[in-house]
Amino acid sequence: MAVHSAQTAGQTAGERTGLQVNISPLLLSSVVAAVAATVALVIVAVIQSRQPGPPPGPGQMPPPPPSDVMLIVTTGVFTVAWLAVIVVFCRDQILRRIGELEERFAELTAEYGEQRETDGYLHGMRVPNQPGHSGPPGGVRPLHPVPPHE
């Protein structure tokens, strides 16, 4: 019972803020890839910061600085991975809200149909009872002329 009430309270809080996180498989895999890219970026940055260039020889020009290609590639993967997380999160939120709108639209359509049916029934009951009504008894009007019976 306590678990159910805690879940209900959590659902109510999520509904109030308008943000509800449902972990889809795509979002989960994107987060895992982004975390792995973050770890890789930190490792590459630490390794490259600890690699001093070779000392220059006597009377020679200093050597070029170490290559930053690995750091640049890892930074690109890091950026793309976290952008993927953001895009997938937004996609999941949009799909959830579209689902809610579809449910609400179905409810409103059913409610509107029931209201129209009730209004038609009530109108049909009122018309024969109005003064000056010159229709057939019972207020039923045929859509097509009734063929004569033989």
Overall pLDDT level: 79
Contiguous helical run count: 3
Task: Report the radius of gyration as a whole number of Å.
Answer: 36 Å
* Major sheet summary line: none
Shape: rod-shaped
Characterise the protein shown here.
The protein has helices at 2-17, 25-49, 69-126. The protein is 66% helix and 0% strand. 3% of the residues are buried. The chain is built from three helices and no strands. The chain has 150 residues and is mostly helical. It is rod-shaped and about 125 Å long.
List the helices and strands and how they pair.
Layout: H1 2-17, H2 25-49, H3 69-126
Helix pairs in contact: 2-3
Features:
150 residues, 3 helices, mainly alpha
Nutshell version of this structure?
This protein has 150 residues and is an all-alpha fold.
